[in-house]
């Protein structure tokens, strides 16, 4: 009787309720439900879809990160709501809630859980950077890619950024250049991304491909399309007035359709291709004046419509 009278007035939990256990018991089922919904219900609709192996791999990464992040978010919300309900201020109660500071078990749990999550994400992220098929996850790898597709010879597509549109050259088909972008399904594609002026960024959303287009640099990105269809290309680096309009659509088609299109276009554009600079991994527009003199002298320039000069240091 005396003990109960001596108990601090307004003590939060005269019954000794185990708050940690309660919060855990509320959090656990909620976290499991949210994770299952995220992975299995929303997951298949997460960006950027599954049109290519790199896109599918990115969607998987986002699913995994969501499944790891959601329980943390749920814990924050459960803890906040629990605090509002259980530890809210009551009339005549001037005591603080239970202290976390100096609580060894809570501290050890906090450090362990956060360390495991961060270290797992570091390992997972490093591995996924090289995946799928260790071909670099659809990102630009610079001029000498570390990760290359191992299944067959890639179809080469050069992406040329230019204020304000992308054009595409196909070196395996005579190097013709066009504004149309076609790639075959089921075959590795190597995008050689460069620019003629400022920095652009080739972003083929549904393919999960994204690579900076730097003048004078060849930035290589790989992907393998998994099914036919249309994808959107946008410039994703602010590149001037009409940056927002720098977009076009690409097509993933069957291998036979791609071959037919490429061969037909090669024939159709042959006379134009003859006026282009020879295919190179990068072009340097700043050499125009010197080039022009040489080409005028050699009868190369004038009516031939040279569009941009080859990056050939041996030229005068
Ligand atoms: Cu651009």
Topology:
Layout: H1 2-6, H2 19-42, H3 53-86, H4 104-130, E1 155-162, E2 165-170, E3 176-178, E4 181-184, E5 188-195, E6 200-204, E7 209-213, E8 219-224, E9 229-235, E10 247-253, H5 255-268, H6 270-273, H7 288-297
Helix pairs in contact: 2-3, 3-4
The structure holds copper (II) ion.
The CATH homologous superfamily of the largest domain is named: Cupredoxins -  blue copper proteins
Number of strands: 10
Alpha plus pi helix count: 7
Q: Work out the radius of gyration.
A: 30 Å
Order of H and E elements: HHHHEEEEEEEEEEHHH
What structural class do helix, strand and pairing data support?
Answer: alpha+beta
CATH architecture of the largest domain: Sandwich
Provide an overview of this structure:
The chain has 316 residues and is of the alpha+beta class. Helix content is 37%, strand content 19%. The chain has three domains: 17-88 and 105-130; 155-283, Immunoglobulin-like (Sandwich); 286-316, no CATH class. The chain has helices spanning 2-6, 19-42, 53-86, 104-130, 255-268, 270-273, 288-297; strands spanning 155-162, 165-170, 176-178, 181-184, 188-195, 200-204, 209-213, 219-224, 229-235, 247-253. The strands form two sheets. A five-stranded mixed beta sheet has the order 3-2-1-5-8. It has a five-stranded mixed beta sheet with strand order 4-10-9-6-7, covered by helices on one side. Helix 3 (53-86) runs antiparallel to helix 4 (104-130). The longest helix is centred in the first third of the chain and has 34 residues, at 53-86. The protein is elongated. It starts with a helix and ends in a 19-residue tail after the last helix. The model is unreliable at 1-13 and 301-307 (pLDDT under 50). The protein binds copper (II) ion. Copper (II) ion is lined by residues 161, 164, 200, 235, 237, 239, 243, 246.
């Amino acid at each position: 009787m005396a003990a109960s009278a001596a108990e601090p007035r307004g003590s939060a939990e005269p019954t000794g309720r185990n708050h940690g256990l309660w919060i855990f018991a509320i959090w656990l089922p909620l976290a499991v439900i949210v994770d299952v919904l995220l992975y299995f219900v929303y997951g298949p609709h997460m960006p950027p879809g599954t049109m290519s192996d790199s896109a599918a791999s990115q969607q998987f990464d986002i699913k995994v990160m969501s499944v790891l992040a959601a329980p943390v978010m749920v814990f924050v919300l459960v803890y906040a709501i629990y605090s509002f309900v259980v530890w809210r201020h009551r009339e005549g109660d001037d005591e603080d809630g239970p202290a976390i500071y100096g609580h060894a078990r809570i501290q050890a749990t906090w450090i362990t859980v956060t360390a495991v999550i961060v270290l797992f994400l570091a390992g997972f992220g490093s591995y996924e950077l090289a995946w799928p098929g260790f071909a670099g996850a659809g990102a630009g790898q610079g001029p000498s890619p570390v990760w290359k597709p191992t299944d067959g010879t890639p179809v080469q597509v050069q992406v040329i950024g230019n204020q304000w549109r992308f054009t595409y050259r196909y070196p395996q088909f005579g190097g013709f250049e066009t504004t149309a972008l076609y790639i075959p399904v089921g075959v590795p594609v190597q995008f050689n991304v460069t620019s003629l002026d400022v920095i652009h960024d080739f972003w083929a959303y549904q393919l999960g491909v994204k690579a900076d287009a730097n003048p004078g640099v060849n930035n290589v990105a790989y992907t393998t399309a998994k099914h036919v269809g249309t994808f959107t290309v946008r410039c994703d680096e602010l590149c001037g007035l009409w940056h927002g309009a720098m977009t076009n659509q690409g097509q993933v088609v069957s291998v036979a359709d791609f071959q037919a299109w490429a061969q037909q276009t090669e024939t159709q554009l042959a006379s134009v291709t003859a006026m282009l600079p020879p295919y190179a991994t990068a072009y340097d527009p700043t050499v125009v004046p010197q080039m022009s003199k040489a080409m005028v002298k050699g009868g190369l320039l004038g009516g031939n419509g040279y569009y941009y000069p080859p990056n050939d240091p041996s030229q005068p």
